[in-house]
């Protein structure tokens, strides 16, 4: 039998004897016969060594990005994390603990989460942060709902350049209260948001919030974003920002963002094929009671010693039920721990230096790709940090990426919505300078792209 | 056992090395000044060793399953096998970007596909998706599916209500509200759904009835087949909250009980770690008529190749980025593979045996509401303690002093001063007996000691009311408070 279920000789018999029953079957006599099942058909049990062999055999069929010249980015980052991060995350006092509902027994996790919240406040320029949400996309969804709680209206504006996955997630969040999502057009040359569109929409009185992203869905920076709040007045502004970019860019709270969300995976969390990730959420103080998710607060114990506890819980589902600000219960606490350990090990100067170095690689990549026929690289005439959009003129994105993959290059993230029936868009991909690429990989990409971008004969 | 938790007077990170100057970060060519940070990030510059010591000390002031028995009702705090941790850190699992071409992630897709097939068998439902990040996220997705289904049938106009028992987890009504349904509570009778009340409540307004079975009182809803008939009789859908699946693994299944859609929590039944509150991993299981609405993409198999199928025109779309929490799916698959058919069935038998054993022992000390036979968890009422001026809260805090995590308290609300206790299958008889002994010591202690508990932990009882009344939610708040205290507002200059 499985070793993880205690099995000392006579152990279960002793428990049955204590209950005065002959067999464990009697414990299920309240399950009606008609609801019983027979065999599950899930196969036999395995020794731990066999489990390792079988899963390793399956994992062999994966080709991790580290085996390629890797240019994949977007909201998720393939980035080295100092070993110190996992050394802390792997401490089982942390990872085998539950939600700190008994604060006296959970001071370690509570303090780490308080430090995490503090870090997102500093990066984002907001007043308070929660202890995490599922990922960047759901954090944006929760921000949409917060906006509706603090402002009237039924239209929520998002950039047309927002990644399709996030648009789809947001559409689901908006659908509950019957709200609509509208896309802000962008300038075809620069990818910048059409501020006149935003100005007109804000005047119409029925917009309850606007979302902008930094960098935007094309990987570029938009100089119009810091001007948005001025156009919007009392209409809430949500900014979805990459946390590494905020080591060098102005915190959105400083230019008036009411809510700042983001995807925190790049800080010490491996991509693991898309999860677990980390939703970052911060907002202005006046919106505290409209905010979703758990929040850790500082307090004192009966001796006056500093202590930490979950607070403002009357917003939450276990107390407020159908009137809660969100249904979220389980969040991403352990990932929040990784985030704050990562930033503290790398340090503020280290983060800015890392962002500067990725930006430098991206510029080298852009110049290497600039001369390739059949590519517009970068497609948009706008500033960028570690990534930018490339447009293909003669081949499909799928074909281009497939040709690169055969040359051991992961060439980028396609931007089109893959669902059949989705609107046709230009052949575009997001190309990122990851920390694992150097001059050699960049030249390899440029060389391979010359052939890959050419129409098949 | 004498228990003393580490008590480090550990400063906050920023007090270890107060950051002083905030020089602006280096400028990046091409990035205009208007976008640049005017002051550098305010965060301490620490050595790696300082950071490691800080967080190691914090970890020593935290209970986990690995340090303490954790009898939290509804949370299924079972042992998290170490082999799963090992496997999830392999490069072949961790170093995969979700935008990688399908040809480079065949192993990941196969693991997802295999786990989905396995969970289809466990739930008795034809289609499964691993996309939700957590249980509540699964509830939300499932209700989006139910809504889309009724919209397609032209019934959404009138199907506006989600019914749930008064013992439901708080996430159920919260999820229903997020999807735009009105919620209505069905009263319990002897700890189970009052089926007569349910029959009276269902109508053509009913979109869905959400139920967990066994329920949060630890009781199996034996009238489940009648419940299913009552809900289906008016054309409603029956939703299974899988938080308590551990108790019925291989005994019955949501599909066999008549549920149309279900969520499971891999971080409960399939032993992925709770991580201090997350990450979790949710599972969606759907019957034939709701399966077309599952989130995109679905993992499909063609010949020996696995692929992501986006051609699902009725799908609700995306509920998060990426395909669920793969790192946790992998851990859960390792757990399922190790257990197999017999092991999974053993889980239910042993978990229910453990909980009934402890229930029978503690039931002589405090009243147990409802019938005695329970499943994965049981309730006690701390109401008699009030005669001694003691509350359930005091008992819970006193248990912490025994090095035992407290049970879930004050839930469900239909039991006065409730304690909800769950003992998963990974606890040995020795640890169950030790828990009972600790509980008895706590119960027999003086009111003074119970009120003063905990005394063996890093901190004593915390003023949670003050934390809510004067929220201090970040370092920024602490700085503002310190500035107010230490440097009172300057006196207005003379005119």
- The amount of beta strand of chain A, in percent, is 5-15%
Number of helices of chain A: 13
CATH-defined topology of the largest domain in chain A: Aspartate Aminotransferase, domain 2
Q: Name the CATH superfamily classification of the largest domain in chain B.
A: Type I PLP-dependent aspartate aminotransferase-like (Major domain)
- Helical stretch count of chain B? 17
The pLDDT mean of chain B sits at 95
Q: How would a crystallographer describe the biggest sheet of chain A?
A: 7 strands, mixed
The end-to-end span of chain A amounts to 61 Å
* Number of separate strands of chain B: 14
Largest sheet of chain B: 7 strands, mixed
Q: Quick one: CATH class of the largest domain in chain A?
A: Alpha Beta
The count of domains of chain B is 2
Give the SSE order of chain A as H and E letters: HHEHHHEHEHEHEHEEEEEHHEEHEEEH
Sheet with most strands: strand arrangement of chain A: 2-8-7-6-5-3-4
Largest interface: A-B, 200 and 203 residues
Per the principal axes of the C-alpha atoms, what is the gross shape of chain B? globular
Q: Roughly what percent helix of chain B?
A: 25-40%
Secondary structure category of chain A: alpha/beta
Q: Average the pLDDT over all residues of chain A and give the rounded result.
A: 96
Estimated radius of gyration of chain A: 25 Å
